[in-house]
Every structure is written in structure tokens, then in C-alpha cells.
Here is the input.
Amino acid sequence: MTARRRKSPARQLKQLVFAVLVLGALFLAERGSELWDGATDVATGELPADARGPCHVIRVIDGDTLRMRCGSEGMKVRLLRIDTPERNEPKYREASEALRSMVEGRDLFFTYEEADEPTRGGYGRLLVYVFADGRNVNVEMVRAGWSQFDRRWGEGRFARAFRVAEREAEAAGRL
Here is the structure.
């Protein structure tokens, strides 16, 4: 009877890495367009063509509301498609701090739901998508688990990026 030769740990590791790469390639081939289509601002760091700015934070009010200064103009903005905890609700302070860490000290840009069509919400705040370091902050708040993708008034122009972020947050147990 011949003794069976055991595979070395290095060879086992190489085979595992190869298997992971093959599975990743298959996944991207099947779902890649869903992950990146409509989410180029998140994937590549590119700003939408209609983005305005740079602006700077004056104050983070809560996890979905900011006061910003763009040039000489001050504005109060509400981040579209997210709804973070309100004052006196659990995780209010943490969500506000998460937004602060994403925007404070950075050049901010913003865009509206419809290019060049400002819309205001019920409290007079401009409804916007905010970008810091080329990343959609609204989407990143969902990815971090501070809000679900808020679909109450439709899905909006970055819907795929929000859906991907929401799935990532759920898979990681953040939502």
C-alpha cells in the first residue's frame, strides 16, 4: 500500500486563494453591473456633473441635517434618502457624530434630486445629496448602518448605490 502524500500548507493556501479569486470573478461577472451601474460616484470618486461647491460645514445639526457655507451663502440642508434618529431617540448622538466625521474639515459638494432644480422640504431645508472626498455621504450613512435607504418618496437618482450600501450594512449586521 502506498502512503498518500499530504499537501503542504502553502499549496493549500494557494488553492484557497485561487478558489476565492474564481468565485469573486464569477460573482462580478454576474452582479457587477448591479453593483456599479448608477453608483459611479461611490465606486470611482467622481462627482456628478451638476455638483455645486466647494462648501464647508458650519454645524452638524443631526445625522441627516447640516448647516453649510458655499461662498458667502449659508444654507441648511437635509440629506436625501436617509432618516437618522432624532433628538431623544437611541443612537441620535452616534449618528450625528458619524456624519460629523464624514464631513467636518472637508470640501463638500452637493447636488439636487433633479439637476439644477432646488427643492425644499417641510422645514425649509434644501434637499440634497452631499459629497465629501468624492463619496456620496448620504449613501455612506446607509453603508455605516445609521439609516436604511428611505424610499418614502421614491428611490431617486442614486438608488442602486443605496441598495448596494443597504445590503452591505445588513450583511455586516449594522442595520
Summary: Residues 9-36 form the longest helix (28 residues). The beta strands are 52-62, 65-70, 73-79, 108-111, 126-132, 135-136.
